Amino acid sequence: MRADVVVVGLGTIGALTLAELSGVPGRKVVGVERFGPVHSHGAFTGESRVFRTAVHEGERYVPALLEARRLWKRLGAQVGRRLLLETGVLSIGPSGSAAIETTASEAQRFDLPHEALDHAELHRRYPQHDLDAEDVGFLDLLGGGLRPELTVLSGLEIASANGAEIVVRSPATAIEHRGDAMAVITAEGEIVADRVVVCAGSRAAELLPQLAGLLRVTPLSLTWFAPHHIDQFTPDRFPVFLRDRGSSHLFGVPTLDGFSIKASAGDLWGNSERLADAPTEVDLPTLERIAQTASWFLPDLNPEPVRVSMHHDAYASDRVPIIDSSDDGRLTIVAGLSGHGFKFAPIFSKWAATLALGELPDGYDPQLYGLDAHRPCEPA
């Protein structure tokens, strides 16, 4: 098969990048995916993701998040789906804690709509949360939840409608430079293209030797619990939340299915050098610890998960994604999204498509995201 551009990996970034590239007239664009369309094996799955504009990770991300929010709403309107759930994001922690203070500082600096809640107001408005005496709240009014599976489906639908060819259940086994072209080797044969975009998530380092040592695979678990009073956990009464309590962390999303809420601890297993070495299920002692934490934070939850899933993502050493192109512009890489790439998906996919077309994206900083800006990870 011959193409102008091949996108390898059709998770979130891949699907949206394929949609972007397929909208360029006169180009043959092919997407390659090792699993089926909108599968359950990647980092994107799990019903919902957290979206914030005020982030404690630092001010460098806020402008990109504001643009991402605009693009999320535009994409939702384009496909007629509610991809962004505008519930706000409630951060809870001790007064004066670094996470609360940094988030509040970013909101003030960028004039982001928000509410600062003292202990009494936090308890009055959100009694679902068990609070410590020093706890306060910060409500990011532009934040909320995102629907990952619907997003990937939407990207693939747009790409297909634009004429892109989507090849599924066809693992890419290698990517090679072939003189003035690229070759993607799959189980079914080769696809030769002018340019290739690799968005292979936790498998990216297996395909690209230049990523060796720069990424570690991190398992991420998700859990859902059934409250006794589900009416207290609807999106209009219970915002998406992030919470630190002692050494415990919990994040969650209001009910989307009418009987359960997501309440998850996330990263509890450390890192692996290879995806094959990462655990594929949550062991019983860890599950019991998550359940104890969830019911401690939210006492109305029945303390036994009704659903559990294990996922994985590739983490860079400083948790800054790798987004870059080769010197000849024929290979573009998006990798190491480090557990917080989904909220940036409309931005990162637009950058990837622009780089693949040989142009420099607006807002893209190669000194931050470029391959050479990343140091090797510590041994797993």
Q: Could you characterize the architecture of this molecule?
A:
This protein is α+β, with helices and mostly antiparallel strands and 380 residues long. 25% of the residues lie in helices and 28% in strands. The chain is built from 9 helices and 19 strands. The strands form 3 sheets. Strands 1, 2, 9, 10, 11, 12, 18 and 19 form an 8-stranded mixed β-sheet that branches. The chain has an 8-stranded mixed β-sheet with strand order 6-7-5-14-15-16-13-17. The mean pLDDT is 94.
Which descriptors would you attach to this protein?
globular, 380 residues, alpha+beta, 19 strands, 8-stranded mixed beta sheet
Alpha-carbon distance between the termini?
Answer: 39 Å
Number of helices: 9
Number of strands: 19
From the spread of the alpha carbons, the general shape counts as: globular
Low-confidence spans: pLDDT under 50, at least 5 residues?
none
Helix content: 25-40%
Layout of secondary structure:
Layout: E1 2-8, H1 12-22, E2 29-32, E3 49-51, H2 62-79, E4 84-85, E5 89-94, H3 98-109, E6 114-117, H4 119-125, E7 135-140, E8 144-146, H5 148-161, E9 165-167, E10 172-178, E11 181-186, E12 189-198, H6 204-207, E13 215-225, E14 240-245, E15 248-253, E16 261-264, H7 284-297, E17 307-316, E18 322-325, E19 331-335, H8 345-356, H9 366-369
Parallel strand pairs: 1-2, 1-12, 2-9, 5-14, 12-19
Antiparallel strand pairs: 3-8, 4-8, 5-7, 6-7, 10-11, 11-12, 13-16, 13-17, 14-15, 15-16, 18-19
